[in-house]
Amino acid sequence: xxxxxxxxxxxxxxxxxxxxxxxxxxxxxxxxxxxxxxxxxxxxxxxxxxxxxxxxxxxxxxxxxxxxxxxxxxxxxxxxxxxxxxxxxxxxxxxxxxxxxxxxxxxxxxxxxxxxxxxxxxxxxxxxxxxxxxxxxxxxxxxxxxxxxxxxxxxxxxxxxxxxxxxxxxxxxxxxxxxxxxxxxxxxxxxxxxxxxxxxxxxxxxxxxxxxxxxxxxxxxxxxxxxxxxxxxxxxxxxxxxxxxxxxxxxxxxxxxxxxxxxxxxxxxxxxxxxxxxxxxxxxxxxxxxxxxxxxxxxxxxxxxxxxxxxxxxxxxxxxxxxxxxxxxxxxxxxxxxxxxxxxxxxxxxxxxxxxxxxxxxxxxxxxxxxxxxxxxxxxxxxxxxxxxxxxxxxxxxxxxxxxxxxxxxxxxxxxxxxxxxxxxxxxxxxxxxxxxxxxxxxxxxxxxxxxxxxxxxxxxxxxxxxxxxxxxxxxxxxxxxxxxxxxxxxxxxxxxxxxxxxxxxxxxxxxxxxxxxxxxxxxxxxxxxxxxxxxxxxxxxxxxx
Length: 546
Prior knowledge:
Layout (H helix, E strand, L loop, with lengths): L4 H4 L5 H18 L5 H19 L4 H5 L5 H17 L11 H11 L20 E3 L14 E4 L8 E4 L1 E3 L9 H14 L3 E2 L7 H4 L5 E5 L15 H8 L4 E7 L10 E3 L6 H7 L7 E3 L9 H14 L5 E5 L4 H14 L5 E5 L10 H6 L4 H14 L7 E5 L5 H10 L3 E4 L1 H6 L22 H4 L4 H25 L13 E6 L2 E4 H4 L7 H4 L11 H6 L14
Parallel strand pairs: 4-13, 5-6, 6-7, 7-10, 10-11, 11-12, 12-13
Antiparallel strand pairs: 1-14, 2-3, 8-9, 14-15
Helix pairs in contact: 2-3, 6-18, 7-18, 11-12, 15-18
């Protein structure tokens, strides 16, 4: 067998190994009479630091990169000064700003997240938003805000937190990351979306509430040819740990793209979880094979709900062609089959790997997608029967408040919770070399992520964010986040003009789409309804010709 030096001694441990070697050699030299005490002291001190780094459980970076990892914290400490004095402008091109990451890290560690000297934002910049406060603030007894999800045909309704872990699959995340997230969800009483990679053994260990996401690959409920298998689905769906089932139509980061996990990455564990063969490419088609029309889709929703024993069933989508979404709504009206919930995923959403054209230029942003879904359901008098969740770069309590103002009733966050378990946005998710063990299948690297420690941070991030949301709701004089509407959020248009979101994004009058042949322009509604509602059809995803 051919041995590789990097398999025996990974590069990330080389600094530690050099220090150990230096300590030993200088010690031997001292015994031989050489004057090597300064060298011995330096190498021995660094060796002791490396030993401590390996056994401590607080920082995954130090466990994976003993001694060398301290450079990261040094640079993090001096980074603001480097930016101020040596870098012209803000060159932070990572998906989230340093301030956002600091916010999550602070809340995950349950330390103070206040910022001295007031806002760091330019309040005169176009796009700046705020929520109006009341002179009669409320006082709420709890920050444990919940909603009941489940419509008229649902016999096992789920009382969900309004802040949950968004879809991230085992395979894209490590086993330890999945366990940390699920244990944190268990501690906090909120839900953990499995992602389309199905329910792994690591999702089950701690028993946290699961939202089982079923994508076009039907992982965990598929036949050998990749088609849907009702019996395998039922086995998983009736598990008491599974609280809701979510059909993934599209993902905000790469809508209409599908996906593939290359064969070499399909390990025994991933193959067992997804119901595929070891070493064989794991393909998620761009579209579903279980249905091809909006009506068939509604029938599939009913089938999944019946097989699950009456659990809430809904779907997730990033809005694309508006007539396709309108066709789904018309199919609801025609079949009288309604999903229990809809999750709107904004194109801001993230992924481990996707063509840059898809991440940057395909799909509808959360604001427009969420408002369109909310308004359409109001227009057909279904808004009270279907709950709406959302996802897409939601980090802070204010992000949630804006989403509620646009029509959401709960929010999901992916990267926020990834930050809480140690993600530092190294942006090497697709390589297997994640420095913190979050997005790797390398057993040695993911061991650096200590599940009990990180699960507490997951719990803290959720808890502290909802505490702040409670304070925002109280300041606005309201009783529940779901009372926030577009009239509570103000947006700056230019230096001399601001508008309420309710003016910029007006709400559809209830039942209008059922009765009006022509939409009154005076309502100031988006022209998308005027242009495409009459072209949508329940029997097909294609639009009618004029």
